[in-house]
Specification:
The chain has helices spanning 20-29, 38-43, 50-56, 61-67, 72-79, 87-98, 100-107. By secondary structure, the protein is mainly α. The chain contains seven helices and no strands. The radius of gyration is 22 Å and the shape is elongated. It folds into two domains: 9-42, no CATH class; 46-107, 434 Repressor (Amino-terminal Domain) (Orthogonal Bundle). Helices cover 52% and strands 0% of the residues. The protein starts with 19 loop residues before the first helix and ends with a helix.
Length: 111
């Protein structure tokens, strides 16, 4: 069964029967579930934001890069929005944000 208009609340139980157009219409009708526009995506910032993490730790770019073994050019590219960290790097930055001393200890040469 293909629907061409926005589904009602009763239709939610039969969502597998919705057409792509009906799903799109329902999303646009729900202010809490509207799809992101390109402008929305541009306004959103990826998290974690490395500059905020670095400033919270009161480190210069050079000190942060050295402490956490991140190339200084890469760090600057992230902070200036020229590049975006990949998923693994975002995870690493999250760990740095939550446990900076543990990361620094783990990266320090063995005594």
């Amino acid at each position: 069964m293909t629907r061409t208009s926005s589904p009602t609340a009763d239709d939610r139980l039969r969502s597998s029967e919705w057409s792509d157009e009906a799903i799109e219409a329902a999303a646009h009708d729900d202010p809490d579930a509207r799809p992101l526009t390109e402008d929305d995506a541009k306004r959103m910032r990826s998290t974690p934001r490395v500059r905020i993490i670095r400033r919270a730790l009161k480190l210069s770019q050079e000190a942060f890069a050295e402490r956490f073994r991140i190339p200084i050019g890469t760090l600057r590219d992230w902070e200036q929005g020229r590049k975006v960290p990949d998923a693994a790097t975002r995870a690493y930055l999250t760990v740095i944000a939550r446990e900076p001393e543990a990361v620094a200890r783990a990266l320090s040469p063995a005594a």
